[in-house]
Amino acid sequence: MIKGEALALRAYLHLDILRLFAPSMMNVEEDKQLYIPYVTTYPCTFQPYTSNQDVLNKAIADLKIAKELVGSYDLANIVQLSPINRIENGGADDIFFAYRGYRMNYYAVCALLARVYNYAGMHQEAFNETEIVINALCDSYGSKCFTFTPSYTLRNGNTKLYEEIIFCLSNDQLWTIYKPYYGGEMSLYLNAWSADDLFDDNSDIRKKLVTTLNYYPVSIKNVEASGTLANYSKDIIPMIRLGEMYYIRAEYYNSKGQTDVAFEEMDVLRAGHSCTKGRLSGDFNQALVNEARREFIGEGQLFFYFKKFNIYPNSKYMTSELQFVLPRPDNENL
């Protein structure tokens, strides 16, 4: 299990480095340029740079092994992956085997494999992995491991919608860390005039996680909350959400020219958040980016959607897709 988790984390970290420091796959295709190394030895003082596709191939290889290794434990102890168990003890006798939502559990590996396949343009393979996650059952009664969050739980402090989280990290000082950024010159204002600019449906439960501060919208996901569920949410740093699985499925159908079915997949998620179905239309890529803006507020994923589809968040300051590529650190050129 430890080896499987380590291999999956290696793939996770390399994918994010690739997505930051190399052009998106939609922009490079088979350019054969070398962007980052995929480090497989320790200690490592140097590893040759390789292409986007080589990095993705190595990440996929790591995740396939990780899936088998981690699955040998999680699939035998599936009750620990029920919505509340995965961020609680989960009934494990040994604490080392508890809190599986904070670890690279089996379904987190599958979801990450879907993300990598999707980024590589391998839409069928990505779709297959989402099937495993979405259909995962955590008891003999047919209860889903990952479900959409009931609206009433937000009033009880469930600001992270933890039922939908597949993999997360923990920092029990989040409320303290974020407190200075709500009010004053450092406020974390969202890139919108109001919540109405972000949400197209007033019933969307995700809209309840946005408030107005000094006339501008801000996310309250990391604001100190009250209620019986606040203690579960206070330390959670979401890394992979259920919503991403539906976006990957939508991309699969769009790649087959079935844009209407793609919108239906996105509507499954929207309906789970109390939105009215049938409102999505027009350009698929833009519609998906708009949905990602609502789904991943303050979670660090939206940048990658803008970059993947080459959609500029602000056309006044962005004029080239090359601006999505972070400059290589100077010490990498020593």
Automatic annotation (TrEMBL):
First-listed, main subcellular location of the protein, grouped into a coarse class: membrane
High-level lineage: Bacteria, Pseudomonadati, Bacteroidota, Bacteroidia, Bacteroidales
Taxonomic superkingdom: Bacteria
UniProt KW Transport keyword: no
Keyword Signal annotated: yes
Keywords: Cell outer membrane, Membrane, Signal
UniProt family annotation: Belongs to the SusD family.
Subcellular location: Cell outer membrane
SUPFAM superfamilies registered for this protein in UniProt: TPR-like
Protein name (database record): RagB/SusD family nutrient uptake outer membrane protein
Stretches assigned to the RagB/SusD domain: 192-304
UniProt-listed Pfam families: SusD_RagB (PF07980)
